[in-house]
Amino acid sequence: MWSRFSNPAKFEGLARIAGPIACGVFVLCAAFGLVAGLFFSPADYQQGDSARIMYVHVPAAWMAMASYSFIAMMSLIAFVWRHSLADVAARAAAAPGTIFTALALFTGAVWGKPTWGAWWVWDARLTSMLLLLFIYFGYMAVWQAVPETARAARFARILALIGFINIPIIKFSVDWWNSLHQTASIIRAGGPTIHPSMLTPLFAMIIAYTALFVWLVFLGMRAALARRRIEARGARAPSRPAAPAEAT
Amino acid sequence: MDFSAHTTPYVLTAYAVSLFALAVLIVWRVREFKKAKREEERLGERD
Question: Which of the four pLDDT bands, split at 50, 70 and 90, describes residue A8?
Fold first, then answer.
């Protein structure tokens, strides 16, 4: 199946159908999640209404890590199987991943002020998320700074794979160190500790953010492939014949 | 829903910035895609 979609034309066919579907899922789930989260879910018994920030903070944080995991996976596929679209996919995922990470940090700070009394603390979870943001910046900088695409792809893959070590550190930081950030409430032994009235809009927003990521990656890949075709046309265009020498 | 005066600014700020950032990302990506497609179609017509 992978090799089938290494053909850009076949991938374009998939993206033309799957992209709009992902967009539709994003719009529907975001609308439901926002309305349910803001107006119908209960306030937290300790944090009050500031807990509603969870419905934008948690999806952003999950997608920050999921996007980077996607980049690392595509980089590995490009390294091992030389899949022609893997690098394109990884590069297309970088901008959305960076925005999700920045939003996770910002909304976390806004949630932390009324909850912890501080906009920022240098605890393990927050610091490792900040490091993830810098890794995203570095990844995008490599693509921009190295002029030859093949060389840029090689460096970007290496950076992506080395940077992946940060993902389990982020995930388990709240267990390994004394962190102000709360421990896992959803993916944990014994099941989620969040009430269904809060879990439903939360899952809706997570699905919305995921669908948004899928849609944006498809768009980014289609744009990159179109630019590649434009460059190939430019390289194939016949050169002008030289003007005839004038007799003196 | 009965927001308290203490937490409302924080909730509204978090949601407003999130929605604005995602909107900017979507608009940027869609424009980038449309620009590439227009350029490709223009080259196709010229050929």
Answer: confident
Q: Which helix (H) or strand (E) holds A89?
A: helix A86-116
- Looking at beta carbons, which residues of chain A come within 8 Å of B47? 233
User: What's the distance, Cα to Cα, between the start and end of chain A in Å?
Assistant: 66
Nearest-neighbour CA in chain B from A178: distance (Å): 26
Interface contact B13, partner A, CB < 8 A: yes
pLDDT tens column, B9-37:
999 999 999 999 999 999 999 999 999 99
Question: 3-state DSSP helix/strand/coil percent for chain A, to nearest 5?
Answer: 75, 0, 25
Boundaries of every domain in chain B: 23-47
Domains of chain A: 19-224 (1.20.120)
| Rounded Cα distance, A77 and A83, in Å | 6
- Residues A80 and A93: beta-carbon distance below 8 Å: no
* ipTM confidence: 0.89
Phi/psi for A44 (5° steps) reads -75, 145
Largest CA distance in chain A: 96
By CB neighbour count within 10 A (0-12 exposed, 13-18 middle, 19+ buried), where does A197 fall?
Answer: exposed
Written as six digits, the tokens of A215 are 């849609």
Q: What is the dihedral of CA A159, A109, A106, A206, to 10 degrees?
A: 90
pTM, 2 dp? 0.89
